[in-house]
Amino acid sequence: MKDHQLPLPELSDPFSIGSVAIRNRAVLAPMSGVTDLPFRQLAWRYGAGLVVTEMVASRELVANKGESWARLKNAGMVPHVVQLAGREAHFMAEAAKIAADNGAGIVDINMGCPAKKVTGGYSGSALMRDPDHALSLIEATVRAVDVPVTLKMRLGWDENSLNAPDIARRAEEAGVQLVTIHGRTRMQFYEGRADWDAIRAVRDVISVPLIANGDVETAEDAREILARSGADAVMVGRGAQGQPWLPAVLAGHAAPERSDIADIVVEHYGMMLEFYGREAGFRHARKHLGWYLDRCAPGTAAKDKATIMTSGDTAQVTDLLRAALCEDAASNAARKAA
Questions:
Q1: How open is the CA angle 295-297-302, to the nearest 5 degrees?
Q2: What are phi and psi of 147, to 5 degrees?
Q3: Model confidence over 140-156: pLDDT tens digits?
Q4: Fewer CB within 10 Å, N or C, the chain?
Q5: Distance set, CA 27 to CA 36, 99, 249 (Å)
Q6: What is the pLDDT of residues 167-210, one digit of tens each?
Q7: pTM of the model
Q8: Is the Cβ–Cβ distance between 142 and 107 less than 8 Å?
Q9: Cβ distance 223 to 25 under 8 Å?
């Protein structure tokens, strides 16, 4: 167990997961449909301490399904962290081997996803309802690979079963080398506020590093979640949507200049079209472009935003993005000068 009287860690400081060095303590959360390769590349470039793949379904990866392999891809980001989901020990172990054989330096086990299509298949946070079965998956995964295995989960299934401390303790005994806790139960989904104080109950029973997750959007949030949870690092999820540089900023790196944001967004748009192909790229890009506009150019005309979100004309979308984002940057500059 940790000595809670120690000073709070600096998010700019490195730490380790097993023998793997991590460059700072502000981590990008795995988010299905969000943290694809282009998004991770941007977050990593700006200085996130760690980026994690979208959830990879273990059975589908073993079955050689194309989407799973796409989610597994990396582009020189070290360590490469692959998050696996599943409900069967055999497939979790085999998928972990595939991930490690394809460059994963860390394998993360998903026991936190609250989505009905995941929990309905007894994966994700549904595993917290059966800790003995969950431990069988953890043990099989740890035995299967030589790289560190980590675990991400919630406080429990609901407020009557806050069993994260017990599962975390048993997971550490099984060989897990880091635990991440999202400060909500599964039944809360993303409603209300994450309970940062409740995460401390996990800190009290494990000695491996702990990452705290949930509603971290500012440097003040990051400091407070560390103080209240006793965690070693923070994980940023939805707060990074529309600003993939946020984890890096929390770790002390400079945010991009307002004048550069249009270039970043246009580049991200192009990266998605290249990664997915033109038609699929348009579909995947729209939510990201909407987040960028909401955060960085909230005054964008409704007609222009609708065109950006629906047009298949790359040049038209690019021109409208630049106009909206550059106009907003110029307006901000003018207000500051006034």
A1: 110
A2: -85, 160
A3: 999 999 999 999 999 99
A4: C
A5: 15, 20, 11
A6: 999 999 999 999 999 999 999 999 999 999 999 999 999 999 99
A7: 0.94
A8: no
A9: no
| Beta partners for residue 81, in sequence order | 52, 106
Cα dist. 77→64, 90, 172, 194, 250 in Å?
A: 23, 28, 26, 30, 19
Closest CA relative to residue 102, chosen from 118, 81, 123, 119: 81
The answer to whether 88 touches 65, Cβ cutoff 8 Å, is no
* The two structure tokens encoding residue 63: 């079955």
Amino acid at 120: G
| 334 CB neighbour count, 10 Å cutoff | 9
Question: CA–CA separation, 41 vs 197, rounded Å?
Answer: 32
DSSP at 158: S
CB atoms under 10 Å from CB of 197, counted, come to: 13
CA distance 246 to 239: 7
Structure tokens that stand for 100 in this block: 């490690």
Pair 11, 24: CB distance under 8 Å:
yes
CA distance to 26, 74, 76, 115, 195, per residue, from 199 (Å): 17, 31, 33, 21, 7
CA dist., res. 112 & res. 65, Å (int): 23
Q: 3-class DSSP state for residue 207?
A: coil
128 touches 186 (CB < 8 A): yes
Check 99, 113, 271, 324 and give the catalytic one. Answer: 113
Q: Please, how many CA atoms are within 13 Å of residue 280, restricted to the half-sphere of its CB?
A: 7
How far apart, in whole angstroms, are the C-alpha atoms of residue 311 and residue 194? 37
Q: Check if 113 is active-site.
A: yes
**CA atoms of 198 and 196, how far apart (whole Å):** 5
